[in-house]
Design a protein that fits this description.
CATH class of the largest domain: Alpha Beta
Shape: globular
Structural class: alpha/beta
Strand content: 25-35%
CATH topology of the largest domain: Quinone Oxidoreductase, Chain A, domain 1
Number of helices: 12
Largest sheet: 7 strands, mixed
Radius of gyration: 20 Å
Distance between the termini: 15 Å
CATH superfamily of the largest domain: Medium-chain alcohol dehydrogenases, catalytic domain
CATH architecture of the largest domain: Alpha-Beta Complex
Helix content: 25-40%
Number of domains: 2
């Protein structure tokens, strides 16, 4: 089969490799759509703490089952249309037992530890099948839409971690794909949102697609995003801040935007060398601000995302601006890297 193999930093090659063997408990799928995540681009340029090379990248995957391993024939059949939650938990550690398998002590991830979806076929290992990582999708949901269930699931995890609720005002840094998905998801939780973005191209895209009523242009050097947001909220600040980008200054600004008892969730990791940021301890203390982390998502949150997509509660069609072949993968990485695309799907 044809696959894109990352052998090292910026060493990506389209090659022919053996189709994975489907052992007992496994499922083999024909990949119909695999969206490019910003993390894929990061791994291409700089690696990742969880990445094991050489590797077929791609973890936002939907496809059709072409082989079912012995022992799971009662759950899946040939031809089933499925979305795959990439995190493969052990199912037995304390975190898995508590219902937070994304914190699993032995977590392995498709596209990081196991070969992913930038290939013609992809194997879902038995522990992933056993732990609910394969989700059936209805005929009404396209494969490319279903491939975006995983980033929606990550947004759901972040919103639940910081307890977004009815009546909250949420500030979201970034009008990229994650910013759009967080905004749509926040509205489903009963919140309203304010977007902060520094790209005129992305502001124009957000306005064209009626993402939100309030967008603060942070590229204007004469505008302080913190003061601009406080003006929009009658000096109250917001209830929740979600940095949907990896700019080191954003969490610092975000804390200053919060109302009393506000919450900020660190959705994205920061670049190497910028991990240690300086936050105002007294501001956090006196305003009883709460800080949360959010990493990845659970298999159940993937199922929830599939249900949202299937019911039309989340719209991703307008976000898919480019569709490319596997041979054009590096071109797709460049489009994502340069913000020349929103969602790029490999088909």
């Amino acid at each position: 089969m044809k696959a894109a193999i990352l052998g090292g930093i910026e060493d990506l090659r389209i090659v022919d490799i053996d189709t994975p063997a489907c052992n007992p408990g496994d499922i083999l799928i024909k990949v119909e759509a695999c969206a490019i995540c910003k993390t894929d681009v990061k791994m291409f340029h700089a690696g990742h703490r969880d990445l094991k090379l050489p590797r077929v990248l791609g973890h936002e995957v939907a496809g059709r089952i072409v082989e079912v391993g012995k022992g799971v024939e009662d759950k899946f059949k040939l031809g089933d249309r499925v979305q795959v939650a990439p995190g493969l938990p052990c199912g037995s550690c304390p975190f898995c037992i508590k219902g937070v398998p994304n914190m699993c002590d032995a977590m392995e991830i498709i596209g990081f530890h196991h070969d992913g979806g930038f290939a013609e076929y992809m194997l879902v290992p038995a522990n992933g099948v056993h732990n609910g990582c394969v989700n059936k999708i209805p005929p009404s949901l396209s494969f490319e839409e279903a491939s975006l269930a995983e980033p929606i699931a990550c947004c759901i995890n972040a919103l639940k971690r910081c307890r977004v609720e009815l009546g909250d005002v949420v500030a979201i840094f970034g009008a990229g794909p994650i910013g759009h998905l967080c905004a749509q998801s926040a509205r489903l939780f009963g919140a309203s949102e304010i977007i902060i973005e520094n790209s005129s191209q992305r502001i124009e895209f957000a306005e064209k697609n009626h993402l939100t009523d309030v967008i603060i242009d942070s590229s204007d050097i004469d505008i302080d995003p913190v003061e601009a947001l406080r003006e929009e909220t009658n000096s109250n600040g917001v209830d929740v801040v979600i940095p949907a980008c990896s700019v080191p200054e954003v969490p610092v600004q975000g804390v200053k935007m919060l109302n009393k008892r506000g919450r900020i969730v660190f959705f994205s990791g920061l670049p190497y060398g910028y991990e240690n940021i300086s936050l105002d301890h007294n501001l956090i203390h006196y305003k009883e601000i709460q800080i949360f982390g959010a990493y990845g998502c659970t298999s159940e949150q993937n199922r929830e995302a599939v249900r949202m997509l299937s019911a039309g509660r989340i719209n991703v069609k307008y976000l898919i601006t480019h569709r490319i072949s596997l041979d054009e993968l590096i071109k797709g990485f460049e489009m994502v890297d340069m913000h020349n695309a929103m969602e790029v799907v490999v088909k």
